[in-house]
Design brief:
By secondary structure, the protein is an alpha+beta fold. Helices cover 23% and strands 41% of the residues. The chain has helices spanning 2-23, 121-127, and strands at residues 29-31, 35-38, 43-51, 55-59, 66-69, 72-73, 76-86, 95-102, 110-116. The protein has a 5-stranded mixed sheet, with no helix packed on it. A 4-stranded antiparallel sheet has the order 1-3-7-5, with no helix packed on it. Strand 8 (95-102) and strand 9 (110-116) form a beta hairpin. The protein is elongated and about 45 Å long. 12% of the residues are buried.
Amino acid sequence: MKNSIKTIVMALFAIAFLSLAGCHRDENITVSHDTLWFSTEASSQTIEITTDCSWSIEKNDNAQWYTVSPMSGEKSKNGTTITISVQEYQGEDYRAASFTIKSPKGKGNVTVNISQNVVEFTDIINTV
């Protein structure tokens, strides 16, 4: 009787361990672009993300001049389109911000950098 109880308990531990091991996934997130440049006009750009887990977006700053949509999603091997929109900018300096696409356990996080009013190389040549 002791041996059968011991065997059952060991089997339950083995099942529990295997089921927990199955929950650990790599949480891969890939993006088509991790840096975006915008002119001073209000505009939008898109990036494509591919994931093997759910994800959410966290802004890394308090910048109100850009939006990201959608802010979360589910696993998508075929890709999900995320739209980044910026407001018109009348400043002279460039401005920069970033957001992170986060996986549930933080293993697959990817940061995307955005900037606006970047000086174009052709603008420099035309000024000279």
